[in-house]
Amino acid sequence: MTIGEPIPRILTLMGSGETSPTMVKVHRSILDRLGARPVPAVLLDTPFGFQENAHELAIRVQNYFDESLQTPIVNASGIDPNNPENHDDRFLAEQLTTNVQRARYVFSGPGSPTYALNRWRESVVPQLLVEKMRFGGAVTFASAAALTLGALTLPVYEIYKVGEDPHWLKGLDLLAEAGVHAAIIPHYNNTEGGTHDTRFCYLGERRLSELERKMPSELFVLGIDEHTSCSFDLDAQTATIGGIGTVTVRKSGASTTFESGEVIEIAQLIAGAHGSGSIAPRKSITEQPNDFDQPAPALLLDLVHTAERDFHEAISTNNAPEATVTILGLEQSFHDWSTDSPGQDELGRARSSLRSMIKEFGEIAVQGLEDPAIRLAPFITLLISLRADARSNGRYQAADEIRDQLSAMGIELHDAPEGTSWVLTAPH
Description:
Rossmann fold; 43% helix
């Protein structure tokens, strides 16, 4: 991007993983289009602003942008998460307006969509975001924040956690700036329920079908899988699918799916939802001059399972260096994923596995991983020599006692014309 060149207009929705390794390339591909680094970036922390640990979550986002994206990001309100004391509301509103106007990259993520809507609806935020999408800049909203941008918003916690009947809230409808009139559903392929259906942002099929019947006929569902993105280029009128999952358009139970790595016209996406005509051949994003074509990082739990397998294989083959490398690799994965705000359950699982490996490694270190036969060979060879000497001198009782003592220790002797061999029959 050169001086005087128009700033691209990009609206990106993420299903989840917005501060995880899986979304690094998506963020970078957008930042690279916005001019020389550092690109001015702001965080709208409203969706999780009600949480007692809001300042910790903001710091986690800042660390992710600093370490993974090499892009500083500041709170749009101007509040320093390291010093979250109270500020005058009027000052905060003025500071937010200034920071968002100056930013080229606006980011918001997890939390409560209902809380965010209530705070944003009568504020200057929707207009600031509209201006960004009309005059240049990138808006990247994920998870709860993404839910608010549709014509309708799903009050997921009220339905899934509180037990309210399935219903819609009026959304900010900022997706209309891309010409798309839909309700956005992140976490579309969620499977956390195990024995019960938690797809479609914890709704499940039954409740989503019920909500579809309550939608105006011109609207459809835009579903975004976890660790997946849909970037709308408002200048080129295209949508780019990134990450590791799929994007689905659904209306009245009928779905069309777009794979990660595809670039489609926005009109094609809309046609797929309404079933109006055939969808033209879709172009792979690998044809584009960016790095989306690189394999996405594995999910944290996949990395944990792989590490557990490699560690136990290393232990079973007495390969201490490989076991050490595996432990260090899992520790690095734990660090890489520590900024993923909603991933605390998975982080806990990774931490537990890491601690288990270290504990097992420590216990084994007491005896060592070296083949015990190597350590014992000089002593056993000496005893076999003493036994042979006793037998040659007719001291058969002494020879038998040596054999019996070795047998009791799990060392089995085998006499043959060419000499005596031995094997370990018990761990040492």
